[in-house]
TrEMBL record:
It comes from Nonomuraea maheshkhaliensis. This is Enoyl-CoA hydratase/isomerase family protein. Residues 1-23 are annotated as: Disordered. PANTHER family: DELTA(3,5)-DELTA(2,4)-DIENOYL-COA ISOMERASE, MITOCHONDRIAL (PTHR43149:SF1), ENOYL-COA HYDRATASE (PTHR43149). Pfam families: ECH_1. InterPro entries: ClpP/crotonase-like_dom_sf, Ech1-like, Enoyl-CoA_hyd/isom_CS, Enoyl-CoA_hydra/iso. Belongs to the enoyl-CoA hydratase/isomerase family.
Amino acid sequence: MAEAQARQRGGNADDGSASAQNGVRYEVDGEIATITLDRPEKRNAQTFATWSELARIGENLPEQVRVVVVKGEGPSFSAGIDLRTFTSEGVPGQGSFSSVAADGDTGFEQRIRQAQAGFLWLRRPEIVSIAAVQGHAIGAGFQLALACDLRIVAEDVSFCMKEPALGLVPDLTGTKPLVELVGLAKAIDICLTARTVHAEEAMRIGLAERVVAGGDLDQAVKDKAAQLLSTNRDAAVATKRLLQGAQARTLEEQSVAEGIEQAARIKALFGRSG
Ligand code: ACO
């Protein structure tokens, strides 16, 4: 009962109806938020509404949340963009690529930026995001998994960056994390062939942190969340900030950044007030 009371559900942290309508389930349980793509009958295909919903969840994420789990209901994590977006009819109420293209370059780029907002917040230093990936993670589904800090995958996982095969580029923030994880050559290979990456390769090339049997996926994610919550919150935020900045800095600059973060930590832990 207490657990149920501690749990908030909803699209904007207090109302589940909007999320549910957009095929997304969202719940917060203490320091863990769980986002579930919830259109299993359509393999969790994503629409503009899905991305708006993800952005809305990010904007309204309660401050106490430290771990965000992103998962998909049913056999597939996500089969990517809803293919109706490519048709002239489009997704009811949301238009199609042809209607969005009619907005002109600026309008279209703005729509893409709005969609990307649903993915970008998953990298905030204040949280660690974990994608729990089973079955297909295609196109936008692959990119949603890439938007997370960590990927724990089931043995049946199959990643595929299908966009180039459809005449598109991956534009939902996935290209940078892919290159950072697997290197430029492997990223070119994966994207420009639109081939499928299965669990063993995903593990070997650094796409996945862990591969587990399908039935063990939820527990493996829970265990990882518990490990992540076992460290000091403020130190975790500062350390993630440092790690995220490391590649863009020289060793000397990174050492300076470490010193600045540590000084703040020591002041917070041992400084005298007043
Ligand atoms: N958009 C809309 N509907 C979809 C999508 C999608 N991306 N993927 C699956 N569905 C629907 C199917 O049309 C089918 O609906 P129906 O039952 O009303 O006929 C239902 O989901 C189940 O799909 P199946 O194909 O029967 O499921 P299966 O498990 O055999 O195959 C798979 C799954 C491999 C994911 C297949 O559905 C597929 O190839 N989907 C398209 C993937 C794709 O090209 N995505 C776009 C990538 S590019 C991007 O994301 C930008």
